[in-house]
Hints:
The structure holds 2 protein chains of 2 kinds. Chain A is mainly alpha-helical. Helix content of chain A is 70%, strand content 0%. Chain A is elongated and about 55 Å long. The two termini of chain B are 64 Å apart. Chain B is α+β, with helices and mostly antiparallel strands. In chain B, 52% of the residues lie in helices and 14% in strands. The longest helix of chain B has 25 residues. In chain B, strand 3 and strand 4 form a beta hairpin. Chain B is elongated, with a radius of gyration of 40 Å. At the A-B interface, helix 2, helix 3, helix 4, helix 6 and helix 7 of A face helix 3, helix 4 and helix 5 of B.
Amino acid sequence: MKSARAIGWSNTNGAESDLVERCAAGDGPACRELVDGHQRMVYHLALQLLGNHDDALDLSQDVFLTVFRSLGRFRGDSALQTWIYRIVVNQARNRQRWWRRRRQSDQVSLDAIVAERGEPAAPISSTSPERALDQKELGRRLWRALARLPFEQRSAVILRELHGMRYAEIAFSLGVSTAAVKSRLARARQTLRTELRPS
Amino acid sequence: MTPLRLLRCRTVRSWVTAAHDGELSSERRFAMDSHLAQCAACRRTRDELATLRVGLRQGAADQRPDDGAFARLAPELLARTTLDQDANWGRRVRDVIEEKHHLWIIGGALAATMTMALLMVTVLNATPVKPGSLASLLRTSVALGSNANPIALATGVTWAGPTKDRFAYATQLLPRVTVDTRAAAMLIQPLPPLLLENLTLTAVVTREGQLASVEVLRNEAPDADLARAISRLASGVQFVPPHAAGAPIAVNVVWLLERMTVRAES
């Protein structure tokens, strides 16, 4: 099995290294720059993984606190963004486990979000109102199905389809091999594709 | 017919997935496109993947992320970060453990292994050893000089050390040979390929540490050939002679061998 770390796709550039060093030294403006540069990505991923705005905001704060505490251990094995992705996924996974212990199903959480959705913020590639409605309904069904997937499959799909990450980057973020990423994506897609077919 | 048409749909579908994920080489993409032009089923797979992506992105947009909310929280986060620079070590350790969630798995596996090992040792020690079993034989052999395997002093031999230390008798009053010496001797002069069911061997270990006056009683009858073979073997062995009162002594020894396995010469 090929380790994600052994792939050698490290691409931390000089500017990023400088930013990391300044943050690790406690430089306020540098920390602000790091937050500004990644907060949208962190918040969106947290929201997609958890399905709840408040939890996503809370998790985002925890993620950045962990980032600042751990920057001293960041060795540039990956791009800084990929490293932050990994922290987001780990913390989201931990929260889901905590929820399960509290007998709070993650599916309930996402269903609640689905129930309170309004009009889409920006309909994509719609050519007619009917088509936009179809896509909205399709998105709703797919996200319901996504919420039912195991966390490891769901996170792989989100990182690939919504964040455009490559297999190696997903592998690093999830702490698994690229083969495991492909396997999880295949199983998740097989499940989700059933939602595309008329019932 | 070109080789491209020979591609199996199963192969092409895995390529379709890789292409969808931006992980397909240009050579394969060309072959895949040629196949797709002729295969409706594979085209459907490609279209389903595309529809899946569109649907998921639509669903994500419907979540209406509030980007402004996090921007408002950023100053608070940075203030907490400044305060957190003085965070205690306990919190930092917890963060490391939380981030490295695999540590829990490794720790759990180690704990389980140690628990099982402890359980096995406990069970083995609690199991009574049957008389005559291999475990009993080994235990008795190892405990030389114990109540189960006592050593009697030869007539006229006195022991100057602590009387309670019976293992000291064994180390002082029995001839010993180092493993290295014995192994070297057997390599040079291996025993004849005999299967020894029962064997009684008597000899003298001299004060110089040599084996002398070897006699072998096998199947209740003397075996001169075997005695000579063993004498020849023992001539290359240096014993540490027993000591009494600080001086080496010669002793008569009797070995009782039962069901001894000897490898045949090749």
